Amino acid sequence: MINVLFMAERNSSRSILAEALLNRLGAGRFEAFSAGVTPAMAISPYAIALLHKINYKIEMLSPKSVEDFGHDAAPQIDIVFRLSHHLPKGKMPIFHGDPMVIDWFLPDPEDVSGSPAQIATAYADLFGALCNRIEVLTHMPVEHVCSPVARLRLERMGEDYIRLAS
């Protein structure tokens, strides 16, 4: 089992959706967690709506602090995905083990203002980008996921939005 932590600023949208997707798509091979530097009080209602559309049970999801993963009882983390550009230096706890840290900076849909349809579109775009990346991760052989080659591939996915040809 590979333990993965998705980190963002507030842990209310990007990291929550990534946690849910990896736990669904990588069930039995991966266990995903999510956390924020300054956790929100609640999950974004737009993220909840997306999770309901894929019939994901949200009862186990809630915003958490990265500090929750730096104590003795915390699970050992193998990979940390940083989803936010705005994570302050020095705010990463010392994790058990020596996790691989990968940057997948994605726009925060909570920063989008406009009509409900425009905001929902931003969430759908984020969800699509996460689905693409997480699907690639889940198709990697488990024994190679933490290898230097896989690290390079995972880091390259974070350089730009992945756009699939139609």
From TrEMBL:
Statement: the UniProt record of this protein carries the keyword Oxidoreductase: no
Secretion signal span: none
Cited Pfam families: LMWPc
Keywords: Arsenical resistance
Segments forming domain Phosphotyrosine protein phosphatase I: 2-140
Annotated InterPro entries: Ptyr_pPase (IPR023485), Ptyr_pPase_sf (IPR036196)
Gene3D superfamilies named among the record's database cross-references: 3.40.50.2300
Alphabetized SUPFAM superfamilies for the sequence: Phosphotyrosine protein phosphatases I
Protein name: Arsenate reductase ArsC
